[in-house]
Write a structure and sequence with these properties.
By secondary structure, this protein is an alpha+beta fold. 23% of the residues lie in helices and 19% in strands. It contains 15 helices and 21 strands. The chain has helices spanning 76-82, 139-151, 162-166, 207-210, 281-289, 307-311, 342-351, 354-361, 396-405, 423-437, 453-457, 461-466, 483-491, 510-520, 525-542, and strands at residues 56-60, 90-92, 103-105, 113-114, 120-124, 188-192, 195-199, 239-245, 249-254, 272-276, 295-296, 319-332, 367-369, 413-419, 442-448, 469-477, 545-556, 561-562, 566-567, 573-574, 580-581. A 6-stranded mixed sheet has the order 13-17-12-16-14-15. It has a 5-stranded mixed sheet with strand order 8-9-10-1-11, with helices on one face. Strands 4-5-7-6 form a 4-stranded antiparallel sheet, with helices on one face. Mean pLDDT is 91; it is low at 4-35.
Amino acid sequence: MKTRRVTAAVASVLALSLGAAACGGGGGNNSSGGGNAKKDAALTSIVNASSKKGGTVSLEESDVPDSLDPGNTYYGFVQNFSRLYARTLTTFKPAAGKDGLTVVPDLADSLGKASADAKTWTYHLRSGLKYQDGTPITSKDVKYAIERSNFAPEALSNGPTYFKQYLVGGDKYQGPYKDKSATGLKSIETPDDQTIVFKLNQPFADFDYLATFSQTAPVPQAKDDGAKYVQHIVSSGPYQFQSYEEGASAVLVRNKNWDPKTDPIRKAYPDKISVKFKVNAVTVDNDLLADKITADLAGTGVQPQTQPKVLTGKNAKSTDNSYAGALQYLALNVNVKPFDNINCRKAVQYAVNKQSVLDAVGGSPKGDVASTLLPPSVNGYTKFDTYPSAGNKGDVAKAKEALKACGKPNGFSTTMTARSDRPAEVAAATAVQNSLKAVGIKVDIKQFPSGKYFSNFAGVPSYVHDHKLGILSMAWGADWPTGYGFLEQIVDGGAIKPSGGTNLMELNDPAINKALSEAIANTDTAARTKAWGDIDKMVMDNASVVPLFYRKNLLYRPASATNVTVTQAYLGMYDYLLLSSSK
């Protein structure tokens, strides 16, 4: 995901029971007895566990989300956050460490029942499910939610396109806002109010993972008004919106019609969840250190300026340095000159001093230098380096050879993007700029807000082409913890969209597309796992992705936070459904 979601092993993680201790309650200790002050304790346990109800979880974020609409988001932190008010067919087990890497039923009463060929998947909803207004949740609402989120890019441009790609007839269906028929997409069947059946155009062994997406959170059609739905989201979870001011704040309070008997996942301890947007990133860090907030909503770790404050002294005991299962990389757009020439792309591959990039964002606490697209924590990772250099500092000689081969012996000029509210990404872009300057490639850095980065700028091919954005800063985590869950939405040609896209290279290689389709249809687990590494090598041979570093998130735990644990399914951030506060 757009540093969206990520994984750590061979299942998927998510712990769903955001709790908050009552005001004045400090909570208990973690399983190892270290309480809140033990380094990396939340990686494998629940720190300061508490079952007290009450209090407020306070969150801040340096920009704005792509959207809080469950059907119009792709950021991992929103997928994580939305589980407070949007239940999905399946989700991830509420547990710390590896136990959290298990898909479990949520709205459904069991995991999906697959046909022998894995092309038909059936789910049955639990009994007694209700929206915040007390009306029943039905399978038709889940069907409608998927139709609006995957097939109406004119209104909802964010989010993945898996359902559109793999449902029979998905390539022809125009979406519910244009299609006024009573049946909708025929390959999603709802024979009764409790049953939903998916008919796929090819075998898809990972479908239970796909069912964890917030796109399967039910939406009542009568309450939907497309892009405006975000202003009045109808809750299916334990919390509902008390207020939402776009670009500024959101407040969630208890949903009185949520029945805990229908929800074995969420404990719903806090009374309120408060979020502020557009807070300076360093201010967010300082508020964490001052114990003014419970967590940074974006969940990607403290800024480089803050890092020294949390790596030494007593603060170091309240940190969790988590592998995010994510990659920071450069996308070289193959439809923007001169990157339509593979040798110009190779010149960048060899010229970038990756060690300087890692140093610019904070050094080893922020990750390890990368040479592959798949991170080591994702199933299918194979260690290799197509463009090696001594000390990962770049190879000027080979870069100049590539420039000569692409007809630009004296270099060229291009534009690079970075997200303005992410100081670390801007610092990384500056380091890349300096590296490329050494071989004659002049880079102009353009900054854009992360909340609109994909919907308005980097993820819009027409904008990218018109403004000649050749190099695009990108961070990505697996949608689920397999090679397919990491690769498909960033290298498959079918993932290219008019807006909200995540295949920023606009890579549409028939051989890669075919390899992905064949691998996900393969029921041989070992062969499927090997295929992901092979596809990674194909992408690196194409030279359109420059891996920079495998990311870590240096997280800080405020003293008042309770029920703190790290989730790998959503990019190694704190799990908002477990996270609590004594305030």
